[in-house]
């Protein structure tokens, strides 16, 4: 029987793919460059393809490729279901990525996104009764549509707890620190705060004792869980009152307290630390953005001291209220009630970006890379 051209092409293609599959590292490298959606489809081809993209080695390859194409994940508006959008740097077009609405969540309150890491996001959903305030805590992978509800921690009396997420250096490792109130001190002077930590390696909470402070509500934030992870530590704002306090904890669970940068007492109040003060990660270093009426300052923590690295104009007036502020390696992203703005460090220029598909209401945006990681951090991943 004479072979047709179409049959010949299929046979040659199959032979070529057999050679590619035989070179396992080359095959994995090719697949790691695909989108998460395409990789999930590749799992259905056969058992070999499924095994090739299901181990920890491949997950590491895929994240490394994804980090070359960074984006932001955005929740422009809190609602009954959390609609998440991807924003690619440059164009900043909003592309719907996922809707997070687990059936087990409390329907009485909205979900809030508080962190993004290795393709996962941490979200909270308020629970409350007359004496206790608490959250459901979710780890979600928007790209695979998987969600994980963490076990409830100890009750927090009279005030809501504060959360912070730490991760790495291994892609499968993350910890969630939960600071909460256990009631009044025995002396009757103030409230006693303790901390417990959830680890992806154990899947359980563990108490690590008392802490000196409960983090504050950052300007216009609906929760106490605004934080930044930089240089292997979580940082929370505690107080803006002079001298100002930051609370930090590292992956080894050691807490420290540090002060905010000092402005001259001869300056006007509006030219010193303001209510619109934000912690950010600037190139892996803890940094502080202080917004004034028509300009802003950026401070960076270097060698155990604050260094003022930038003072520049704001592109909007104080009538355009800032609702959220975050950063990537090369820029600051600022969300106001009307617009989305970016500030590039290399050009020192602001640029107004496109409008969201809905009006900003308690928005949240974070740097994001798509990944295949399970919500438990990778405990189910096998292989190298």
Q: Describe the sheet with the most strands.
A: 4 strands, antiparallel
Radius of gyration from the CA trace? 23 Å
Mean pLDDT across the residues is 87
The amount of beta strand, in percent, is 35-45%
Folded structure, characterized:
The chain has five helices and 24 strands. The chain is mainly beta. The strands form six sheets. It has a four-stranded antiparallel β-sheet, with no helix packed on it. A four-stranded antiparallel β-sheet has the order 4-5-6-7, with no helix packed on it. Helix 2 packs across helix 5. The chain is globular and about 85 Å long.
In short:
This protein has 5 helices and 24 strands.
List the SSEs and their pairings.
Layout: H1 5-22, H2 24-32, H3 36-42, H4 47-52, H5 56-66, E1 71-75, E2 82-87, E3 94-100, E4 111-117, E5 120-128, E6 133-141, E7 146-149, E8 162-167, E9 174-184, E10 191-199, E11 204-211, E12 228-230, E13 233-239, E14 245-250, E15 255-259, E16 277-282, E17 285-291, E18 295-302, E19 305-313, E20 322-327, E21 331-336, E22 340-344, E23 349-352, E24 364-368
Helix pairs in contact: 2-5
């Amino acid at each position: 029987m004479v072979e047709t051209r179409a049959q010949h092409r299929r046979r040659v293609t199959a032979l070529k793919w057999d050679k590619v599959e035989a070179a396992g590292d080359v095959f994995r490298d090719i697949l790691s460059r695909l989108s998460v959606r395409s990789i999930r489809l590749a799992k259905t081809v056969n058992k070999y393809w499924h095994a090739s993209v299901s181990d920890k080695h491949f997950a590491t390859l895929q994240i490394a490729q994804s980090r070359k194409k960074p984006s932001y994940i955005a929740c422009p508006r809190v609602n009954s279901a959390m609609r998440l959008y991807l924003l690619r740097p440059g164009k900043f077009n909003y592309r719907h990525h996922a809707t997070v609405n687990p059936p087990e969540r409390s329907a009485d309150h909205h979900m809030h996104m508080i962190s993004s890491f290795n393709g996962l996001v941490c979200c909270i959903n308020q629970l409350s009764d007359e004496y206790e305030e608490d959250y459901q805590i979710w780890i979600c992978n928007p790209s695979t549509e998987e969600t994980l509800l963490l076990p409830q921690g100890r009750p927090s009396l009279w005030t809501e707890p504060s959360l912070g997420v730490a991760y790495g250096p291994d892609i499968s490792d993350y910890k969630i620190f939960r600071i909460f109130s256990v009631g009044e001190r025995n002396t009757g002077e103030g409230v006693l705060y303790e901390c417990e930590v959830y680890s992806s390696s154990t899947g359980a909470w563990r108490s690590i004792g008392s802490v000196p402070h409960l983090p504050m509500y950052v300007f216009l934030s609906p929760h106490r869980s605004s934080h930044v992870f930089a240089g292997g530590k979580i940082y929370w704002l505690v107080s803006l009152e002079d001298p100002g306090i930051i609370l930090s904890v590292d992956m080894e669970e050691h807490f420290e307290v540090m002060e905010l940068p000092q402005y001259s007492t001869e300056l006007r109040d509006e030219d010193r630390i303001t209510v619109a003060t934000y912690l950010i990660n600037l190139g892996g270093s803890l940094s502080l953005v202080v917004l004034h009426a028509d300009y802003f300052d950026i401070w960076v923590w270097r060698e155990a001291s604050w260094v003022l690295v930038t003072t520049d104009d704001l592109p909007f007036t104080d009538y355009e209220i800032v609702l959220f502020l975050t950063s990537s390696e090369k820029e600051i992203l600022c969300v106001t009630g009307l617009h989305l703005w970016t500030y590039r460090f290399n050009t020192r220029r602001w640029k107004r970006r496109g409008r969201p598909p809905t009006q900003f209401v308690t928005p949240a945006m974070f740097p994001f890379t798509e990944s295949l990681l399970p919500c438990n951090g990778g405990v189910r991943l096998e292989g190298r």
